[in-house]
Amino acid sequence: MKNKLIVTLTTVKGSRQYTLNQVARVLVPAFLLMAVLSFFVSNALLVKTSDDLAILEEDHQMLSDQYETVLGTQQLYVSELNQLSSTLEVLQQENYRIGELNASLDESLGGLESMLGMPASDSYTPEQAEVLKATAAQRLFLLHNIPNGVPLQGTRMSDRFGMRTHPVTRKRSMHNGVDFAATRGTKVYATADGVVEFSGRQSGFGKLVIMQHSFGFKTYFAHLDKLNVEAGDLVAKGQLIAHSGNSGRSTGPHLHYEVRRLFTAIDPAPFLKWNIANFDTIFTDVTSVKWASLKEMYPLNQAAVQLPSSQKETDSPET
């Protein structure tokens, strides 16, 4: 029994004895010591690992926060870059549009100076542009308020202004206007802005529209079929006022058209072809109108109206 070790375990159920030899007496304490040491070492390692894990989690959270910050900054940069790209595109388009407008303006001003009879120029100062625009505006104003152009489209002139043999009476008499051969129902348009003085029937003329215009001008539209305006109506140049017909003293469907000023009939022919491109021609072709007073009211700048030296200060209406 000298080399034996007896271990007694006592419980509520009784005691039990275990016999260990001498080797076991050495191994068991050593095992217990190692177990205790392992426990403390493991516990220390666990604590260190937990601390390291906590540090790693903190680092991970910090890196996550930094990532979110960087990601947000990147998204902001991307948004700003997209906005800058859009702004650049808009500016490029605007620059292109401005270039087109400048080219168009130069072309338009070039067209205006050509129409107005002014010397050609490669560039325009603001003052020159204003002169061109003002001159064109004045001319367009006159072209809107003084009869010009044809009163109906797609027709031909069948009788001119002046003495003729009347187709009905067969007598020589004055024809105070021009006739256009036109089928019944052809649209008739106002040749200038004005107000309707008369719209109805009148002996000889049949259905008739008389329009008053600025500067003492009037226009007559006779032998109509349908009247589209009434007395007192304000009418714009180019507005539909009637349809041609064969009413009154007429030998067939046509439009009788007159231009009058201060109760005197004027040959409509120069007014039919008058436009902004040949603006000055009317002042030499029609000498019965006192254009000088009109020039004083509406000076036409560098493209001023040139009156013929033979024109007198008083009207000389044709008879």
TrEMBL record:
It holds the Pfam family Peptidase_M23. The chain crosses the membrane at residues 26-47. Residues 174-268 form the M23ase beta-sheet core domain. Keywords: Membrane, Signal, Transmembrane, Transmembrane helix. One of its GO terms (molecular function) is metalloendopeptidase activity. InterPro entries: Cell_wall_metabolism_enzyme, Dup_hybrid_motif, M23ase_b-sheet_dom. This is Peptidase M23. It comes from Marinobacterium aestuarii.
